[in-house]
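Teaching assistant here, posting this on the class forum so everyone can see the example we discussed in section. The complex has two components, and the goal was to see what a joint structure prediction looks like when all of them are supplied at once.
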Amino acid sequence: MMEKSYEALIEIVGPKYVSNQPEEVFFYSRDPGISEPHNPDFVVMPGTTQEVQEIVLLANREKIPIVPMGASLSLAGLCIPLRNGIVLDMKRMNRILEVNETSRYVLIEAGVSHGVLQSYLNKNYPRLMHSIPDAPPMNTIGGNMALFGSGHLSQETGFHTEMVQGLEVVLPTGEICYTGSCSVVPKWFARGPLPDLAGLFLGWLGTTGIITKLSIRLYPKPRKKDVLIFVTENPDFIPDIVYNITETKMAEDINIFAQPKPDWAEGFQQTAIYITGNSEEEMSFKRGLIRRSLHKYIHNKKGGFMFVLPMMKPGMMESPIRELSRFADVEKGGGFEYIGVIIAIEDFPQLYRDAVEIAAKYRPKWSIMCRVIGRGHSIMFSYAWPFNRANPEDMEKARKALFESNASGLRNGGVIWKPDIEGQSMMMKMMDPNTVHLLQKIRKTLDPNDIMNPGNWEIS
Amino acid sequence: MYTLKFDKSICASCETYDCLVKCRYLDLDLDAAKTEKWRLINGEDSIVLSNCVTCYACEEYCPYGNHPFYQIVDLQEEKNIYPAPQPITNQQIKSVSLVGKREREDLKDPVISLCVFPEAKKPIKGKFLNNPTSFMGRDYFCNLMYLHFGKSSVIKDRLPKVIEHIWDDKLSESESKQLICYHDECFGAFSSWAPAYGIDVPFKVIYFYEYLFKQLKKKAHHIKRINAKVAYQRPCSNRLCPEQEHWVDNIFELIGVERVKREFDREQALCCGSILRMQGRDDLAHELQKKNIDDMVASGAEWCIFNCPFCGYTLSELIKERNIKPIMMLDLCNLAWGDNEENREIV
């Protein structure tokens, strides 16, 4: 039967784009995080929505699990095929189909990476930009939506999923379906006013269908950018600091980071406030308002603006910040957990203290990087735990750090972002039972044969 | 612990109170200056302690060399009246702490300390400089910057060790036992602050511009006159060694640049604003920067010359917007020598 399925897949996408060879199966069985590897039976790279549809129909007939995959950078094992089957690598579906400059949106295939779109816009539409997550540029936009990502414009405009205007999805039973304005008229400019069906697919980790095309919002790209860094030594101040800065409506992005290295960073919370504008006059006005919004801390000597050396600024103002990717391999073992919790802003201090404590127990090299979402409605609180994959003891410590981070997040009123299987299970235990039931009901309705990324969002 | 050689009787018999009357930032008339000075003499609280912007200038204004600024800093620390927010101060203290990365080298003369400015490594290789040897790093950093943060104690703790490091690792085996200080701050630390606190400096310090001038002068026929009008941004730490300021004019004359006559130069020089921003005095920083740059523009300066990299970091972008070219003094000399842009420092 496996041989038959293999032949059928070749029939759909051609021999170049199907593999069951051990060297390829190996790579698709794991990600850089601590999750256990599981081999897929096949790796398939579809080139069109129709090919995706045919693969899904085949999988239904043969009851083969399918795991859609972008760049597999969740680091939480979300593309590891827990029950084997097909890993559907979407990277061939990387066409940029339309840019509407006036209504500021782009229609793309789901395998388009953030890096490719960024560079395409820079070259062809220098006045437009999209929101970029702090992940390597190869991460795909479809994948980022499936795990409810955020990025450098999320402070102003919310989670990336809120920037989605329309989707083309292959349902688990093979139908091709559209959400948003494109389901009514041939334009991808708005998500409503319609029943918001996009919510059936965004944040579901590929368990309800395969996103094949999507339209996302683009934004005006200011000519100037600067960063101010406000330094404090007491995490209790952070909620008020965020409140004051967001009240000015002057910051494009607000990140809070803490780390033990270099020396000058240890013990401090550093709030990086990014401002943008089209003239020095505008920048100066924004800087002034932001500085004034934090005046009471300066006056009381409890916080102040760091002098950012000019040579530090270019690296800090990159999107994505490549230093973060370098940090991922600081232990030189190819292991990295970058996990997070979405929290209410007032919960920052306790999470921060817990994170520092967890780091002290398990991780000598660590970083906390938080991003304010939606002008002060929540914070994406992330922990970066690099580890040495070749050292089982170190992996075990990373595993414990991950578990305790998730537990701390939930205990302190947060919701785990892109949770691994264990994190999903922890959340579903706490979840309202009717909500759990609704989740399962939706899944069962959409995916009667239980083929879509099985193991995820599932009651074990 | 080291204590400041501060003679109260000198201040008590002073008639001018220049240290406070001449201060550009406190705005005190003679009577008010007298009142505040007596508070300081008696070790009492004074508005001077909380309003001092730490520009170092009163060290220069004092006609008796009685170290009014060092006394202010000592009192700020004694009374916990710190100029900058505590996290900024603490962060700065950590940022250049001693790290134990010492390297013993037999350096050949001339020996230059580049402080903690790696960007000076290339231009210091300029052809006219007689192939100096140089070193830099946190274990050799003078730490005088903590004067801006009301932290004499950090300097007292670290500077004697740094002097020992420099001597043991870099100079004790050298022929001249001389150290050329790239940054005014280091020169001020060894030539002014250390003696003021009774700290021995076993080597002789040479002001960087003296070295530059003498090297250029040796081969004066090689110099290409630059023929530009320039403004000079005098760094705060030059207030600790005003007797060295003439080297600026000597160099300018030699390489054919005109130091424009402007209001905010020499004794009237204005702070670049970087420290004020760290202290959270943004409005004042903005005001000073504007005045300073307006003055450069009005005086017809085409270039602005820096010695302190921090002044350069702070003002470069702002002066570029006003069509004035920022350049470090060392680069200017390299240009006068005809070196190509490879050896340029980044401002």
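For the discussion questions: Chain B has three domains: 8-78, 94-212, 220-343. Strands of chain B lie at 111-113, 133-135, 178-181, 204-207, 228-233, 257-259, 303-306, 325-328. Think about how each of these relates to the inputs above.
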